[in-house]
């Protein structure tokens, strides 16, 4: 039989309203009475009605998160971090996947706004003006996209990609390909700019191909272009493209790293499972998710959260897919 608020009140010898107040506003109840109520709640297995609680408080105790592609290995660690941290703070998490469809993204965010207390938007592809307008009216935190006047948690890909170029240069490579990601990707703009800057600084010729969607098939398609370019080193937008590239190079009999060195970005699980293992830029996805939830929780706790940008650094992890320039 379901235990009700009245059952708890009868056991403790107080009114139902006192029990309700002890659960929703414990600081407004005498400590001794509150302790007796909480003991009864635990002993009887009482579960508060969340719908009623939401109606009374105006809170849903839920956060939303929107990602461009839940199948991309970059995003699950962020989602996992958001879920874990939110659970510790008493929030459930609603997840939406835009499937790289820019036209659907804003609609998904607006829908989650109606069903949650705040939304974390990861690597959005939508127009920055539309995103800024939405953030001005709703509780939103962006991950991996800098939106003016909003709260942003950025992953500084530039540091790691710069290290990737320097690593190839140190191995003797002087002609390097950059395989670009989606045209509307903020991360791609940062990574490409960092590759260009580092290449110019150390004296490496940079050849660019793309844009490509972050999929293994894109790397397969890019392989023939890479071989024809005469480049001896490649930096791919992400590990998916890098893995597809290595697969096609192996099919063509091109040795990695004997003939061509390959570097990915994200340091995903793929980097340790490929053969050879993939040198990749390590990205603090989990930390980004935790940071976003912490900021969101401050806002929901009544603290004033000013527009801000928090940057998390990346670094290159060297594995078996890079080696000395063959010529």
Automatic annotation (TrEMBL):
Keyword annotations for this protein, in alphabetical order, are: DNA-binding, Transcription, Transcription regulation
Q: Which residue ranges does the record assign to the HTH lacI-type domain?
A: 3-57
InterPro entries this protein is in? HTH_LacI, LacI/GalR-like_sensor, Lambda_DNA-bd_dom_sf, Peripla_BP_I
MF GO annotations: DNA-binding transcription factor activity; transcription cis-regulatory region binding
Output this protein's name.
LacI family transcriptional regulator
Source organism per entry reads Parenemella sanctibonifatiensis
């Amino acid at each position: 039989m379901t235990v009700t608020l009245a059952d708890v009140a009868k056991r403790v010898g107080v009114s139902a309203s006192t029990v309700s107040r002890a659960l929703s506003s414990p600081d407004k109840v005498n400590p001794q009475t509150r302790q007796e109520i909480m003991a009864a709640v635990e002993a009887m297995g009482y579960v508060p009605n969340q719908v009623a609680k939401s109606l009374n408080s105006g809170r849903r105790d839920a956060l939303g998160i929107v990602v461009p592609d839940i199948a991309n290995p970059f995003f699950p660690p962020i989602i996992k971090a958001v879920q874990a941290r939110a659970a510790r703070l008493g929030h459930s998490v609603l997840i939406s996947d835009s499937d790289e469809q820019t036209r659907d993204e804003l609609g998904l965010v607006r829908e989650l706004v109606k069903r949650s207390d705040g939304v974390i938007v990861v690597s959005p592809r939508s127009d920055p003006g539309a995103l800024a307008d939405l953030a001005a009216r709703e509780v939103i935190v962006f991950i991996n996209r800098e939106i003016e006047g909003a709260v942003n948690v950025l992953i500084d890909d530039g540091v790691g990609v710069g290290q990737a170029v320097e690593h190839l240069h140190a191995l003797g490579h002087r002609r390097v390909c950059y395989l670009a990601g989606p045209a509307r990707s903020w991360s791609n703009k940062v990574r490409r700019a960092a590759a260009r800057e580092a290449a110019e600084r150390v004296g490496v010729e940079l050849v660019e191909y793309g844009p490509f969607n972050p999929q293994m098939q894109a790397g397969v398609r890019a392989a023939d272009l890479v071989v024809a370019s005469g480049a001896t080193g490649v930096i791919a937008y992400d590990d998916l493209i890098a893995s597809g590239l290595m697969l096609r190079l192996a099919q063509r009999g091109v040795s990695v790293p004997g003939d061509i060195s390959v570097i990915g970005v994200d340091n995903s699980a793929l980097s340790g499972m490929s053969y050879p293992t993939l040198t990749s830029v390590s990205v603090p996805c989990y930390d980004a998710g935790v940071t976003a939830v912490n900021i969101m929780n401050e806002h929901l706790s009544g603290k004033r959260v000013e527009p801000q940008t928090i940057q998390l650094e990346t670094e290159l992890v060297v594995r078996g897919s890079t080696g000395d320039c063959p010529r």
